[in-house]
Specification:
The complex is a heterodimer of chains A (71) and B (400). Helices cover 21% and strands 25% of the residues of chain A. Chain A has 71 residues and is of the alpha+beta class. Chain A has a single domain, classed as 2-Layer Sandwich (Alpha-Beta Plaits), CATH 3.30.70.20. In chain A, a hairpin with a 6-residue loop joins strand 2 and strand 3. The termini of chain A are close together. Chain B is α+β, with helices and mostly antiparallel strands and 400 residues long. Chain B has one domain: Cytochrome P450 (Cytochrome p450, Orthogonal Bundle). The longest helix of chain B is centred in the middle third of the chain and has 31 residues. The mean pLDDT of chain B is 96. Classes of the chains: A alpha+beta (71), B alpha+beta (400). At the A-B interface, helix 1 and helix 2 of A face helix 4 of B.
Chain lengths: 71, 400
């Protein structure tokens, strides 16, 4: 058993500045103070955060977050 | 053909539930046509996945300029529906303007405002305790809190609340085009005077920032600053006021849930409880309005260009395939944050984090400071306002 890698990518061009992701998982997502656009704090967060980042991706109103699970 | 008219009536024995006809359509005819106020027909979308698809798809426009756009009522058609701002424009223009105004609604900014919200909630409760029972909480806590918060955020003088409050209601719900236009124009002139003031004396508020960072350098026209500010002002307090009132009533009608809220000191539980109240109450019951600009299949129906679509977010939030036992208020519901009370897609309410914060602070404070709070009249005597874009209880006399 080896731990799966959690990979997160954001599309800042699509981002609609809702702030949902930064509200849901502030360890991984933040917002630009002026434009509200997503800032990705960690592209490979701790796999323990998988549920939280998957939820952020699901709830992103602009569908601007991609989560992949890699070996 | 009454059942084809939108909106169909609610069953007031269940004042927190959507109209039975809409729930029937969700089961039997999830994407179907209904007739709206101006006699035109629009597709009504009732299931969660179908609604998310429409709201996230660029082939559906939020721009009322397109033929076939299903406006909410005659007032909207003559006020907010004529504006060229984030509510009524599509991408790429939408995101450009949104990024100019959203900085007062970010997670960080809302966190900065929380102590101010707490202070206002405490002051309103102090006033209730000093006044003594019975007291109607609608003109008190429910309306005063969001009005003071939006005034602070925008930089609008709270002393003018009677003026703009009355005009805001008329601009969204007046029965004639003339009345709505007149109220809308008075609001525009009111905001124009505030812009003049902010030009001379900028402060830490949204209108000052729009004026000095966007209007003065030429990124936004003065008319755009007026229309954006008017939208934030009218949409920014009435919706939250209605939700505060209805959520207090809902907890009073669910004593076990209320007991948990009263006893809880866990911010995560209060957040979830508030999200569930948003899901369950569905106060934004006029739906999200769109018009197809291409042919798209939704839920087995073909929607053609220039056909209007009403995405019923309040009915989507009762979709059993997403929210098990959806008619039940369950403050521990694990996925309740997936609700679409604030809409979905790029037009999701920019004030959602602020509204959530206000509701969280109200419910984390009110029941602890007033543990014996109860309805002062029987439920049957309460009046509910269904005519606007927001569903609310008109008065809520409480005793303690």
């Amino acid at each position: 058993m080896c731990a799966k890698k959690l990979q997160v990518a954001v599309d800042t061009a699509r981002c609609a500045s809702s702030g949902n992701c930064a509200d849901l998982e502030p360890l991984v997502f933040s917002q630009d103070d002026r434009t509200g656009v997503v800032i990705l704090l960690q592209a490979e967060p701790d796999p323990a955060l998988r549920e939280a980042v998957e939820r952020a991706a699901m709830l992103c109103p602009a569908q601007a977050i991609k989560v992949t699970i890699a070996d | 053909m009454a059942t084809d008219d939108f909106p169909p009536p609610r069953d007031m024995r269940c004042p927190f539930d959507p109209p039975p006809e809409l729930l029937r359509r969700q089961r039997e005819a999830p994407v179907s046509k209904m007739r709206i106020w101006d006699g035109s027909e629009a597709w009504v979308v009732t299931r969660y996945q179908d609604g998310r698809k429409v709201l996230g798809d660029e082939r559906f426009s939020a721009d009322p300029k397109h033929a076939g756009f299903p406006e909410k009522n005659v007032a909207y058609a003559n006020t907010l529906g004529k504006d060229r701002n984030i509510r009524a424009i599509d991408n790429p223009e939408h995101d450009i303007m949104k990024r100019m105004m959203v900085r007062d609604f970010t997670v960080k900014r809302v966190d900065e405002i929380r102590p101010y919200i707490q202070k206002l909630v405490d002051e309103q409760i102090d006033e209730m305790l000093a006044h003594g029972p019975p007291m109607d909480i609608i003109p008190g806590l429910a309306v005063t809190l969001p009005t003071m918060v939006i005034c602070e955020l925008l930089g609008v003088p709270y002393a003018e609340r009677e003026f703009f409050g009355g005009r805001a209601k008329a601009a969204l719900a007046a029965p004639t085009a003339e009345q709505a236009l007149a109220a809308g124009q008075e609001l525009n002139e009111f905001i124009d005077r505030i812009i003049e003031l902010k030009l001379r004396t900028p402060a830490n508020d949204m209108i000052s920032r729009l004026v000095h960072e966007q209007m003065v350098p030429g990124h936004l026209a003065r008319s755009e600053v007026i229309s954006l500010s008017r939208l934030m002002l009218v949409a920014g307090h009435d919706t939250t006021a209605g939700m505060i009132g209805l959520s207090i009533l809902a907890l009073l009608q669910h004593p076990e849930a209320l007991a948990e809220v009263r006893a809880s000191t866990d911010p995560a539980f209060i957040r979830n409880a508030v999200d569930e109240l948003f899901r369950y109450l569905g106060t934004t019951h006029a739906g999200r309005r769109r018009v197809a600009i291409a042919e798209v299949e939704v839920g087995g129906q073909v929607i053609r260009p220039n056909e209007g679509v009403i995405v019923l977010n309040n009915v989507m939030d009762r979709d059993e395939s997403v929210f098990a036992d959806a008619a039940k208020l369950d403050l521990h519901r694990p996925n309740t944050r997936a609700n679409v009370a604030f809409g979905f897609g790029i037009h999701q309410c920019p004030g959602q984090l602020l509204a959530r914060a206000e509701l969280q602070i109200v419910h984390a404070t009110l029941w602890k400071r007033m543990p014996t709070l109860r309805l002062a009249v029987p439920l049957e005597q309460l009046h509910f306002f269904e005519g606007g874009s927001n569903y609310e209880v008109s008065e809520l006399p409480l005793a303690w």
